[in-house]
Amino acid sequence: MAESRALVGMTQQTAADVLDVPIGTLQQWEQGRYDLPPQMFELFQLRTGQFKVSRWEAPAKAFEKGSLHLRLASGDPVTVTMRQEAFEELARAIARMAGV
Question: How far is CA 80 from CA 6, 59, 86, 92, in A?
C-alpha cells in the first residue's frame, strides 16, 4: 500500500480519506499489523488511476445490493463492497477516465 500511495504522492491521511477509513487503519495495513484486504487495495488503485478497468458497465448494472462488479483488463471479475455514496463518486471518476 505504501508503495502505491507513494507513486501518486499521497500522504497517509489523504489515502485514508480516499478509502474512507481511519488513518490508524491505513497505518496498521502499511506496518503489516493487519492484512490489507485486496478489495481495498484495488479500490485505492481505481480511485487513484493506477488500476485500469477493461470495460465499464452502466452504473445500474455494475452496482447491485452494495457491491460494485467490475471486470479487470486481465478478464478477472472483481466485486467491491461499498456505500452507495462512495459508488456514485467512483462511477463519476471511472466515467471521466473512460471518456463516457
Answer: 23, 14, 11, 16
The pTM of the full predicted model, rounded to 2 decimals, is: 0.52
Number of domains in the chain: 2
- Which tens digit of pLDDT belongs to each residue from 15-29? 999 999 999 999 999
Same domain flag for 59 and 19: no
At 99, list the grid cell: 471518456
Q: pLDDT tens across 33-42, in order?
A: 999 888 888 8
Query: How far, in Å, CA of 19 to CA of 16, rounded?
Result: 5
**What's the rounded Cα separation, in Å, for the pair 58 and 44?**
21
Contacts of 70 (CB under 8 A, 6+ apart): 46, 53, 56, 62, 77, 78, 79, 80
Domain that holds residue 45: 1-51
